[in-house]
Amino acid sequence: MWTKKERFEAVLNHELADRPPVSAWRHFTENEHSGADLFVETMLKWQNTYDWDYVKLQPRASYYEEAWGGQFDYNDYEGVLPKVVKGPIGGVADLEKITVLVHPQSLVHSLVQFTDGSQLAQLGTPDMRIPIAACLFWPRCVDTGVPPLDLVKAGTLQFFAPDDEAFPALKLARRALRERGGMSVVMNAANEAAVELFLSGKCAFADIADLVSAAMDAHAAGEPGHEPFCPPLSCSGDDSLALEREVTILTERMSRLDLKTRELVKQLARAGVDEC
């Protein structure tokens, strides 16, 4: 009989175990702001009750928005999130504050700016195993098998303001943020479908942005408030069954929108974007 540690370490080392490690995590909203001792006690009770192979310490779900200036009422929860007093993004104008940098070397993965004007950068070898491991095992750092970054070999790091003509998809991303209404789903699905066509030799690289733009135009031309429009959730977090039903409905609508967009992109590519 394998121990939990043996099972977990075998998977991290890309070895076969007796079975996959099993765990689950959840938010304990009633104890998130009650101090470290109660939080630890709650997490240990969760672990001991279900005897998971490993446990993930789960911070409150609002911490990422707090970092961007979000304000919450922690005495009034709506599902796993406390009631929003002031969101980090209050309107379309706030979206213009999001800046994009072109970094050809792809070695700086994040930058945090402090009030004293300094910036803290996270650098690493561009390999998706690092962010995947960070998502699964945070705050623990695990061996991903990725070689460490050699700064001497990396050489000069460059940053440029983006050229919208050279990177036309940036305009489309900003449009999706402004218009919402399922537009981000359309953009993502259209992009993936267009890239698939390009990789299979069925369209040119320069056609990708045109196909995405055409798919977004087609979605925008649809009647607002009806399919495939995807509205935000409206039910109260106090009614868990109602919330589950509405999440299911919204997920199904997004899935249909995704599939419909992918098919539309194939049709546009066959007919030629300018003809549609």
What's the alpha carbon Rg, rounded to whole Å?
23 Å
Helix content: 40-55%
Widest sheet, order of strands: 1-2
What is the count of DSSP helices, taking H or I runs of 4+ residues?
A: 10
Quaternary state reads: single chain
Element order: H for helix, E for strand: HHHEEHEEHHHHHH
Which structural traits does this protein have?
single chain; 276 residues; mainly alpha; two-stranded antiparallel sheet; 10 helices; 4 strands; 43% helix
Would you write up a description of this structure?
- A two-stranded antiparallel ribbon has the order 1-2. A two-stranded antiparallel ribbon has the order 3-4.
- The chain has helices at 4-12, 36-50, 63-67, 92-95, 129-137, 151-154, 169-179, 183-199, 207-220, 240-271; strands at residues 71-78, 81-86, 108-113, 119-123.
- The longest helix is centred in the C-terminal third of the chain and has 32 residues, at 240-271.
- The protein is 43% helix and 9% strand.
- It is globular.
- With 276 residues, it is mainly alpha-helical.
- It contains ten helices and four strands; from the N terminus they run αααββαββαααααα.
Layout of SSEs?
Elements: H1 4-12, H2 36-50, H3 63-67, E1 71-78, E2 81-86, H4 92-95, E3 108-113, E4 119-123, H5 129-137, H6 151-154, H7 169-179, H8 183-199, H9 207-220, H10 240-271
Antiparallel strand pairs: 1-2, 3-4
Helix pairs in contact: 8-9, 8-10, 9-10
